[in-house]
Amino acid sequence: MTEPVSPLRLVAGICLGLLAVTGWGLFNVGTEIAQAQGFRPQDLTLLRYGVAALVLLPWFLWRGLRLDQRRLILMALLVGPAFSMSFNLGFRLAPLAHAVVIGPGTSVMVALLLVRLVDRQQISALRMVGLALLLAGLIVIGADRGGTAKASGLWAVAGDLCFVVSGALWGVFSWLLGRWRMPPVETTGGVALYAGLMFLPIYLLVWGLPDAPHLPWLQQAMVQGVIGGSGAPAAFAAAVVLLGTGRASIFNALVPPSAVLMAIPVAGLQPNGLQWLGVALATIGLITSMTLTTGRARGLPPAPHASR
What positions does the domain EamA occupy (predicted)? Predict the structure, then answer.
């Protein structure tokens, strides 16, 4: 069973979890806006890890140097440049509604498979029902090819595959985070630092800084690095500390509807009926598949992202 939580910790944990959900929702919508402004996937990758590394560097130097650096490097390889590039490339090719469901949905399924096949833990019948609903939602959304210019033909399929890749990478990362018992905040800082060190030389040598106005770059530095790369993960990590992984993981299921709803006033994106149905099915599936009926120490770790 899950350990009881005092009312004060419960309220604080819920507030932090909702703050993380809001941050990830804004991050997803901000990425959609960035693509419309002409930002390249590599630009957003640089901002995500470069700015997050600067924000979290003091904390990492204080608390993170004691961690196994080889594990941090492996995690940076999983959810570093390859993850961000595939995620941002998917945004260029497929609609926002695809991103906020396919990525988190794939993360949950990959992590569950690893828990079952590697850790040999049983998956409850209720969780299997949740996975079935989640898969149904992904199929509905993947079948949608209308509503936006980006939602047609093989390009949208390629974008969906990018979200599958990024979701799978995050699923493996989430599983390792729980398996290795890595502290979330220090791990987030270490991953951002190593990912930034990996990507910065490649970015400067291959692409270089574009000649672009400063204001959009400052805005996206806030969205990508401060909100999406450090603020939301840190808030979620604090919620995990206060509530435990089982309770806090439920907030991941709120990211898809949060991002889709925020896109209406912020980006002017109106999902069609099929997208609404897919988001609803997948969100119900996510909530069901992350039931709080188990208190096992190595249960499914949380997966943020649309993002996570």
Answer: 12-141, 159-288
At position 107, the amino acid (one-letter code) is S
Amino acid at 203: Y
The domain containing residue 118 runs over which residues?
Answer: 7-289
- Any idea what the Cα angle at residue 42 is, between residues 36 and 45, rounded to 5°? 95
Report the domain count for the chain.
Answer: 1
- Which of 185, 93, 150 minimizes the C-alpha distance to 271? 150
In-domain check, residue 297: no
Answer for the pair 211, 267: CB distance below 8 angstroms, yes or no. Answer: no
pTM of the model: 0.77
Q: How far is CA 3 from CA 58, 111, 185, 299, in A?
A: 32, 23, 22, 14
| Contact indicator for 96, 29 with CB cutoff of 8 Å | yes
Runs of H (alpha helix) within 118-231: 125-143, 153-179, 184-202, 214-220
